[in-house]
Amino acid sequence: MKLYNYFRSSASYRVRMALELKGLDYDYVPVHLVRREQLAPAYAAVSPQQLVPALEVDGQVLTQSMAIIEFLDENHPQPPLLPADPWTRARVRALAQAVACEIHPLNNLRVLAYLVHDMEMDDTAKNQWYHHWVRTGLEGLEGMLAQDSARRETAGLPASRFCFGDSPTLADCCLVPQIFNAQRFQVDLAGLPRTMAAFEACMALPAVQRAHPSQCPDAAP
Questions:
Q1: Across the strands, what pairs with 27?
Q2: Is 186 left (phi over 0), alpha (psi -120 to 50) or beta?
Q3: Does residue 221 fall inside a structural domain?
Q4: How does residue 51 score in pLDDT terms, banded at 50, 70 and 90?
Q5: 115-144 residue pLDDT tens
Q6: The three-state (H, E, C) secondary structure of the chain, written as one string
Q7: Which phi-psi region, left, alpha or beta, contains residue 23 (left: φ > 0; alpha: ψ -120 to 50)?
Q8: Within 10 Å of residue 46's Cβ, how many Cβ atoms?
Q9: What are phi and psi of 27, to 5 degrees?
Q10: How far lies 86's CA from each of 65, 72, 92, in Å?
């Protein structure tokens, strides 16, 4: 497997987490987004959207982090990143999509660059945008985690260590990169106990530590 990746890309970070949690080996191919290497014709032939990550497997290329992770889970099912039961699987997907579809698209690199270069926002306004949408989204996620906690308590189940249950799932693969970036941008993360507990539980795992941006070959010094 060959992973086209940028070390600070949240979507790439999700896939690295999944690969590390499953113990899968892969070749790392850096694509530097700030240097706009994703716009080169050679990379457009790999990923027509000119986004990372892209995962090459047996000569075929997969794009979009959520699709890649589900492909990995279906083809390398241990340890599972999605529950077997349809109801709980849907809940995990909902948690994951709360980050990947609601929070992340409003604060990724190309959106922030557009705000600065095309909309002529200064850094203060850009950061206000980032803080507002990330904090609002994480508050919603915290509410979802509280709902699931109440369901578990009603069913007589122990509290979740991670986003959903006692092992990392697709939801955690989305949460960890989002919190990493929120910390970089100094977003207020107070008052999110379940969210931060899941993040800290993930960060204690050696596999998640190996996926950290600082461990990537293209990481900035």
A1: 2
A2: left
A3: no
A4: very high
A5: 999 999 999 999 999 999 999 999 999 999
A6: CEEEECCCCHHHHHHHHHHHHCCCCCEEEECCCCCCHHHCHHHHHHCCCCCCCEEEECCEEEECHHHHHHHHHHHCCCCCCCCCCHHHHHHHHHHHHHHHHHHHHHCCHHHHHHHHHCCCCCHHHHHHHHHHHHHHHHHHHHHHHHHHHHHHHHCCCCCCCCCCCCCCCHHHHHHHHHHHHHHHCCCCCCCCHHHHHHHHHHHCCHHHHHHCHHHCCCCCC
A7: left
A8: 18
A9: -90, 135
A10: 21, 18, 10
Domain CATH code at residue 103? 1.20.1050.10
Tell me what the mean pLDDT of segment 163-189 comes to.
97
Burial level of 167, CB count in 10 A (0-12/13-18/19+)?
A: middle
What does DSSP say about strands 27-30 and 2-5: parallel, antiparallel, or unpaired?
Answer: parallel
Rg (CA), the chain: 17
Token representation of residue 216: 């990537």
Instruction: Give the domain-ending residue among 79, 114, 129.
Output: 79
Residue identified by tokens 């915290």 is 142
12: left (phi over 0), alpha (psi -120 to 50) or beta: alpha
Q: Which pair of tokens denotes residue 60?
A: 């075929």
Distances (CA, A) of 174 to 11, 35, 41, 83, 93: 8, 25, 29, 16, 10
Domain residue limits at 137: 86-209
In this structure, are 72 and 169 located in the same domain? no
